[in-house]
Specification:
Radius of gyration: 13 Å
Order of helices and strands: EHEHEHEHEH
Structural class: alpha/beta
Shape: globular
CATH topology: Rossmann fold
Number of domains: 1
Distance between the termini: 19 Å
Helix content: 40-55%
Strand content: 15-25%
Number of helices: 5
CATH class: Alpha Beta
Number of strands: 5
CATH superfamily: Response regulator
Length: 128
Protein backbone atom coordinates (compact mmCIF):
# COMPACT_ATOMS: atom_id res chain seq x y z
CA UNK A 1 0.00 0.00 0.00
CA UNK A 2 1.40 3.37 -1.06
CA UNK A 3 0.90 6.02 1.63
CA UNK A 4 1.12 9.81 1.46
CA UNK A 5 1.40 12.00 4.59
CA UNK A 6 0.25 15.64 4.83
CA UNK A 7 1.23 17.06 8.22
CA UNK A 8 3.06 20.25 9.18
CA UNK A 9 5.16 18.62 11.92
CA UNK A 10 8.44 17.10 10.75
CA UNK A 11 8.66 15.15 14.00
CA UNK A 12 5.18 13.71 13.66
CA UNK A 13 5.80 12.78 10.01
CA UNK A 14 8.81 10.78 11.25
CA UNK A 15 6.60 9.04 13.84
CA UNK A 16 4.08 8.20 11.13
CA UNK A 17 6.78 6.99 8.76
CA UNK A 18 8.11 4.67 11.49
CA UNK A 19 4.62 3.33 12.22
CA UNK A 20 3.99 2.74 8.53
CA UNK A 21 7.39 1.03 8.09
CA UNK A 22 6.33 -1.51 10.71
CA UNK A 23 3.40 -2.54 8.51
CA UNK A 24 4.60 -5.09 5.98
CA UNK A 25 3.27 -4.10 2.59
CA UNK A 26 3.09 -0.37 3.27
CA UNK A 27 5.49 2.34 2.17
CA UNK A 28 5.50 6.13 2.40
CA UNK A 29 5.70 7.49 -1.15
CA UNK A 30 5.52 11.17 -0.30
CA UNK A 31 5.07 13.88 2.31
CA UNK A 32 3.99 17.51 2.40
CA UNK A 33 3.63 20.22 5.04
CA UNK A 34 1.18 22.41 3.12
CA UNK A 35 -2.01 21.87 1.16
CA UNK A 36 -0.90 22.91 -2.34
CA UNK A 37 2.20 20.69 -2.29
CA UNK A 38 0.09 17.82 -0.95
CA UNK A 39 -2.55 18.12 -3.68
CA UNK A 40 0.08 18.27 -6.41
CA UNK A 41 1.91 15.24 -5.03
CA UNK A 42 -1.25 13.21 -4.43
CA UNK A 43 -2.38 13.82 -8.01
CA UNK A 44 1.06 12.89 -9.34
CA UNK A 45 1.85 9.92 -7.08
CA UNK A 46 -1.67 8.45 -6.79
CA UNK A 47 -1.20 6.85 -3.36
CA UNK A 48 -3.59 4.21 -2.04
CA UNK A 49 -3.87 5.95 1.34
CA UNK A 50 -3.56 9.60 2.38
CA UNK A 51 -3.05 10.61 6.01
CA UNK A 52 -4.04 14.24 6.65
CA UNK A 53 -3.76 16.70 9.48
CA UNK A 54 -6.39 19.45 9.69
CA UNK A 55 -4.01 22.38 10.15
CA UNK A 56 -0.99 22.68 7.89
CA UNK A 57 1.67 25.38 7.36
CA UNK A 58 -0.42 26.75 4.49
CA UNK A 59 -3.95 25.52 3.92
CA UNK A 60 -5.78 22.69 5.63
CA UNK A 61 -6.53 19.02 5.29
CA UNK A 62 -10.05 20.13 4.36
CA UNK A 63 -8.60 22.03 1.37
CA UNK A 64 -6.83 18.84 0.32
CA UNK A 65 -10.03 16.80 0.59
CA UNK A 66 -11.90 19.36 -1.54
CA UNK A 67 -9.24 19.08 -4.24
CA UNK A 68 -8.71 15.33 -4.33
CA UNK A 69 -12.46 14.66 -4.22
CA UNK A 70 -12.61 16.19 -7.71
CA UNK A 71 -9.91 13.85 -9.05
CA UNK A 72 -11.21 11.74 -11.96
CA UNK A 73 -8.92 8.82 -11.12
CA UNK A 74 -10.76 8.20 -7.85
CA UNK A 75 -10.12 9.24 -4.30
CA UNK A 76 -7.64 7.27 -2.20
CA UNK A 77 -8.57 5.95 1.23
CA UNK A 78 -8.14 8.88 3.59
CA UNK A 79 -7.43 9.08 7.31
CA UNK A 80 -7.63 12.41 9.13
CA UNK A 81 -5.24 12.35 12.09
CA UNK A 82 -5.32 15.60 14.02
CA UNK A 83 -4.89 17.40 17.34
CA UNK A 84 -8.14 19.24 16.57
CA UNK A 85 -10.80 16.52 17.03
CA UNK A 86 -13.78 18.85 16.94
CA UNK A 87 -17.12 17.47 15.77
CA UNK A 88 -17.43 20.11 13.05
CA UNK A 89 -14.10 18.97 11.55
CA UNK A 90 -15.17 15.33 11.79
CA UNK A 91 -18.46 16.03 10.01
CA UNK A 92 -16.88 18.12 7.24
CA UNK A 93 -14.02 15.72 6.55
CA UNK A 94 -16.26 12.65 6.49
CA UNK A 95 -18.72 14.47 4.20
CA UNK A 96 -15.82 15.25 1.84
CA UNK A 97 -14.85 11.60 1.64
CA UNK A 98 -12.46 10.93 4.52
CA UNK A 99 -12.79 7.33 5.62
CA UNK A 100 -11.54 7.77 9.18
CA UNK A 101 -11.00 10.57 11.71
CA UNK A 102 -8.70 10.18 14.73
CA UNK A 103 -7.35 12.38 17.51
CA UNK A 104 -3.53 12.15 17.56
CA UNK A 105 -3.24 12.32 21.33
CA UNK A 106 -5.93 9.86 22.37
CA UNK A 107 -6.59 7.61 19.38
CA UNK A 108 -3.16 6.90 17.91
CA UNK A 109 -3.39 3.19 18.72
CA UNK A 110 -6.79 3.08 16.99
CA UNK A 111 -5.19 4.74 13.97
CA UNK A 112 -2.40 2.12 13.92
CA UNK A 113 -4.97 -0.69 14.12
CA UNK A 114 -6.90 0.72 11.18
CA UNK A 115 -3.68 1.27 9.24
CA UNK A 116 -2.65 -2.36 9.76
CA UNK A 117 -6.10 -3.54 8.74
CA UNK A 118 -6.05 -1.44 5.57
CA UNK A 119 -2.62 -2.76 4.63
CA UNK A 120 -3.74 -6.35 5.24
CA UNK A 121 -7.07 -5.90 3.42
CA UNK A 122 -6.93 -2.73 1.30
CA UNK A 123 -10.50 -3.07 0.00
CA UNK A 124 -12.11 -3.73 3.38
CA UNK A 125 -14.11 -1.21 5.36
CA UNK A 126 -12.87 -1.22 8.95
CA UNK A 127 -14.69 0.13 11.98
CA UNK A 128 -13.33 3.45 13.19
Amino acid sequence: MRVFIADDSVIFRKVLTSSIAECRGAEVVGEAENASDAVEAINRLRPDLVILDIRLKAGTGIDILHSIKKNETGMPKTIVLTNFPYDQYRRVTISLGADYFFHKATQFSDFVSVLRGLVAQPNAELAA
